Amino acid sequence: MKIYIVSGLGADFKVLERLEFPKHCELIFIDWLIPKQNEPFHAYVERMAEKVDTSEPFCLVGYSFGGIMVQEINQLKPAEKVVILGSIKSDKEKSKFIKTGEVTKIPRILPVGLFNTKAANVYAIIRKLFDPKNPRLLQYFRVRDPYYLKWSVEKVSEWKFDENPNVIQILGDKDIVFPIRNSKPDYVIKGGTHLFPATKSKEVSKILKEIFKDSEKELSAEKKDKSTA
Predict the structure, then answer these.
(1) CB neighbours of residue 193 within 10 Å
(2) 126 Cβ partners below 8 Å, 6+ apart?
(3) Residue 105: what pLDDT?
(4) What distances in angstroms separate CA 12 from CA 2, 31, 64, 178, 229, one per listed residue?
(5) In which domain of life is the source organism classified (predicted)?
(6) pLDDT reported for residue 180
């Protein structure tokens, strides 16, 4: 079973590197693309979805903003399972902080220069929100193109989406970015900040193995049905 994975806003796959999946799963990482000038969100999603091969069954996994992205991709290319880590199922689960950005439109008027690598105040906010006690925090955030970062913040604040009850949600109970009080997750990581895939990898891996343990049987059954059809 192929599992397509999208990491978080500005994050590469280092934040997810310690996660373990069942041996029958083939992991395929979808890198963030740099948005084109004035590119509509749906057009960007279509470009991100190009890597997904629909000729055989697949699953989607997304972390943080990547969780939002895989749910959008699932609209275009339906997956067997969709799992989101440290993310939300609908715009109703947004934090007050994010909703403020949506109402005031502040992310739209922020200058691109604010998101450059020298903007220490931005990274101070990231530290506070994600995990202030983690000294390796900024090592996880390698995608630092200013336009991409500004665009991503805008899209998170503007995102509108109806909840899909089939999406499997895993949240940390200490997450400030997407507070657990706004959601009803399928799994809760005790003591997990927004960086729980990296800091609580054993707990998360156990859950992922449970979620995907039956995918091999399901895939074999589908192939058998097709061969006898």
Answers:
(1) 23
(2) 137, 138, 141
(3) 55
(4) 19, 8, 12, 19, 42
(5) Bacteria
(6) 95
Burial 156-189 (b: 16+ CB within 10 A, else e): bbebeeebeeebbbbbbebbebbbbebbebebbb
CB contact at 8 A, 1 and 219? yes
Predicted local confidence at residue 153, as pLDDT? 81
What are the residues facing 60 on neighbouring strands? 4, 82
Mean pLDDT by 10 residues, the chain (229 residues): 89 84 95 90 96 96 95 98 97 82 54 50 50 57 68 87 97 92 97 91 96 72 55
Domains annotated for the chain, with CATH where assigned, are: 2-226 (3.40.50.1820)
If DSSP codes are grouped into helix, strand and coil, which group holds residue 210?
helix
Cα atoms in the Cβ-side hemisphere of radius 13 Å centred on 144: 15
Characterize 21-44 residue by residue with b for buried, 16 or more Cβ atoms within 10 angstroms of its Cβ, and e for exposed: bbeebeeeebebeebeeeeeeeeb
- How would you class 191 by CB atoms within 10 Å of its CB: exposed for 0-12, middle for 13-18, buried for 19 or more? exposed
What residue has token string 């880590």?
85
For the chain, give the number of residues: 229
Query: Which residues lie closer than 8 Å to 84 by C-beta, 6 or more apart?
Result: 61, 62, 63, 67, 68, 70, 71, 167, 168, 169, 170
